[in-house]
Amino acid sequence: MVQSALAKALLAPFSLLYGLGVSFRNWTYRQGIQKSINFSVPVISVGNLSVGGAGKTPHIEYLIRGLSPYLELATLSRGYRRKTRGFLMVDRQMNAEEVGDEPLQYARKFPGITVTVAEERAFAIPEIMSRRPDTQLILLDDAFQHRAVRPGLNILLTEYDRPFTRDYLLPSGRLREWRSGYERADVIIVSKCPRELSREAADQLIEEIAPLPHQRVFFSYYDYAAPYYILDHRYRLKMEENVSVLLISAIANTDYLIRHLKEKAADVHSLDYEDHHYFDRRDLGNLQLRFREMPGQHKAIVTTEKDATRLELHRSFIQKERLPIFVLPLAVRFHFDQGPEFDTLVRDFLLNFKA
After folding, report:
1. Can you tell me the distance from the alpha carbon of 347 to that of 349, in angstroms, rounded to the nearest whole number?
2. Looking at the chain, which terminus has fewer C-beta neighbours within 10 angstroms, N or C?
């Protein structure tokens, strides 16, 4: 704790410089020096103030599940750490290196929607409408700081255990911009809440966030399903108390996931990598070695859906070595029966949208 406080103190001047740069950029948008563009198609943005880990992908998927049966929708992501450039329509036969892990996940799970990647969202949206003129809604993934597009509905996520109200600017903290940036949000979702959350604890956090009169606050958590085999979704892993799990992950924060696994398995070991890390053959060899060293006969390797898209780049190795890698799917749920309330808010936005 002392070292952490000392590190924050040493990095504070750099955070101040970073914050001044962010303030200047936001000022240019407020003054109209840089323009935020409105589009004639409804746009919903899902993002956060901090770097990674708040659960943008599962919440985008929640919106897709609820809206895709009724609307022609498209997702637009940057395609972080992909090895290509420019605008791309994502096909489920592509790989993570071409389009990024999260867009590939959307394309494979929801084949009926349009999935796209591009660095410049303001140029990508007209491209989407040109190629898919029937599109009725665009979901922007991780675009809270992308001011060039003005979304009709701006959804901000913040983690229950690490809310933006207790965080600091990069590099001494995890915030991409000042805490006051939350004021641009229409909806604030406190994500990754405990499955058992009291109304009192929620109210205390609402008081801490201090939402503006127009802002609505929701509380969500993850509902995990049975893990499926990475190379064949028909085979499921039955999580039991006698099963030992080796978790391999390259996501921003595994605390919530590990808590879930510890409730289901005998013991949990983990191999952690930086967010969006591309696993190489050495990583797979290390995984194989660590798995073999684990005691007992009832054991399995577990990973996330996002990590699975990058592990699949080594499909032949996984198949040859018969690595029992299982993928843990999840879905977003809302506390306090807020699901219908959130759905109604989104529906009303779409019904009242005017170009």
Report:
1. 5
2. N
The residue type at 96: A
Long-range contacts at 337-342 (CB < 8 A, ≥ 24 apart): 338/218, 338/219, 341/218, 342/187, 342/218
Residue pLDDT, tens place only, 297-344: 899 999 999 999 999 999 999 999 999 999 999 999 999 999 999 999
Please, which residues have CB within 8 angstroms of residue 70's CB and are 6 or more apart in sequence?
none
Whole-prediction pTM:
0.95
Give kind and range of the element (H or E) at residue 285.
Answer: helix 281-293
3-state secondary structure of 164: helix
Q: What's the start-to-end Cα distance of the chain, in Å? A: 51
For residue 76 the two structure tokens come to 């637009």
Tokens matching residue 300 = 């399995």
Q: Which fold has domain 226-328?
A: Rossmann fold (3.40.50)
Identical fold, 10-71+136-223+334-351 and 226-328: yes
The CATH topology of domain 10-71+136-223+334-351 is Rossmann fold (3.40.50)
Residues 6+ apart with CB under 8 A from 131: 89
Number of H helices and E strands in the chain, helices first, is 11, 15
- Residue indicated by tokens 């127009």: 214
Q: What's the pLDDT tens digit per position in 100-149? A: 999 999 999 999 999 999 999 999 999 999 999 999 999 999 999 999 99
Are 54 and 191 in contact by the 8 Å Cβ rule? The answer is: yes
